[in-house]
Amino acid sequence: MTHALRPLPAQLPAQLPAQRAQDLPPFHVMELLARAQALQAQGRDIIHMEVGEPDFPTAAPIIESAQRFLAGGRVDYTPAAGLPALREAIAQHYADKFGITVSPSRILITAGASGALMLAHAVLTNPGDAWLLPDPGYPCNRQFVRAFSGLPVSLPVDAASNFQPTAATVDAAWTPQTRGLMVASPANPTGTLIAQDELARIHTSLQQRGGTLIVDEIYQGLVYEQAPQTALSLPGADDMFIVNSFSKYFGMTGWRLGWLVAPERYTRDLEKLAQHYTICAPTPAQHAALAAFQPDTTTILEARRAEFAERRKVLLAGLNELGFKVPATPQGAFYVWADVSGICEDSAQLAHRLLEEAGVATTPGIDFVESDGKRWLRLAYTTDVARIREALERMRNGRLS
Ligand SMILES: Cc1ncc(COP(=O)(O)O)c(C=O)c1O
């Protein structure tokens, strides 16, 4: 039997990208980066303080682990939830570092924290569900929510609460449409931590409302004045979604590897979603990461953490001298969120001038905050102390206002 084809309309409607793609704002820092690269191509020496990735090479034991695996010649899929040995190694890491028991069955290996955030929303977000997102915050979170037709809702946070939500602000913003709250600790762009007792209060409040807490702990290992913390050590934390990654502390950004700790009752559905979306996280990266928790790797990573701590000290002191205000001292990650309202009216213009006149690349606040982006500038100390000193010197010699 043949089917008659319907005649084509004389004029096909224009093929447009989906609305969610059309609505995406550009990353302003990418324009700055393009300009920085153009200046570099002209021979200018640019100090990069805009990039959110460690400047260290991947630690040798991790590289060697990948090389041993690749020498075997077979690079196949792994199970969707990840290599069992890596899930066990992560569970062991929680036991060794935090003294807590996390079943490997709750741990899913993902393509970076990004993959974990996407999977978390895939399993949690129904169309129209609202998510409270601290503002300033990591801009991609809005897009993970929108990918599943959820509604990102800004939850303004300021220096008074260390740029972190409180139980009171969450309660005040909650509506019947709210599905949950996303928190990052340490946070990007501010580097601030949420206090464990406040997080516990928020968690209790969410439990009473039937909401869900997603905690992004991607910068967990990079804290400077206290021991790393995890929300998983709070009482009743087995209903939280915890995101982590090998990108930052473990220095493996390009390997694309992270993990999600999920409540037991979601793991089967998450596994199915992972099977359909990505099949598995990159196999060589998973084998490489088996070496990430070894003592010789930890020695290297801890030395790097000490180097970040020194950079942070130098940068904070230098910025203070130059008139930048840092109202909440960053306790972790590798960012300083500086208030530049005493120096200029628009941080995007300042970022532009810093690049053109001082050869220092930074990120304007507008990329991270909904309301008063012009007031803020993010500086990343992902470059060494000598270069940070040089950047400060150039800023001192230029006229900033
Ligand atoms: C807070 C936060 N979450 C998630 C990510 C994504 O990281 P990745 O996918 O490399 O693990 C980043 C990257 O900068 C981040 O800052």
TrEMBL record:
CDD domains: AAT_like. InterPro entries: Aminotransferase_I/II_large (IPR004839), AspAT/PAT-like (IPR050596), NHTrfase_class1_PyrdxlP-BS (IPR004838), PyrdxlP-dep_Trfase (IPR015424), PyrdxlP-dep_Trfase_major (IPR015421). Its EC number is 2.6.1.-. Residues 45-394 form the Aminotransferase class I/classII large domain. Belongs to the class-I pyridoxal-phosphate-dependent aminotransferase family. PANTHER family: AMINOTRANSFERASE (PTHR46383:SF2), ASPARTATE AMINOTRANSFERASE (PTHR46383). This is Aminotransferase. It comes from Viridibacterium curvum. The lineage of its organism: Bacteria, Pseudomonadati, Pseudomonadota, Betaproteobacteria, Rhodocyclales.
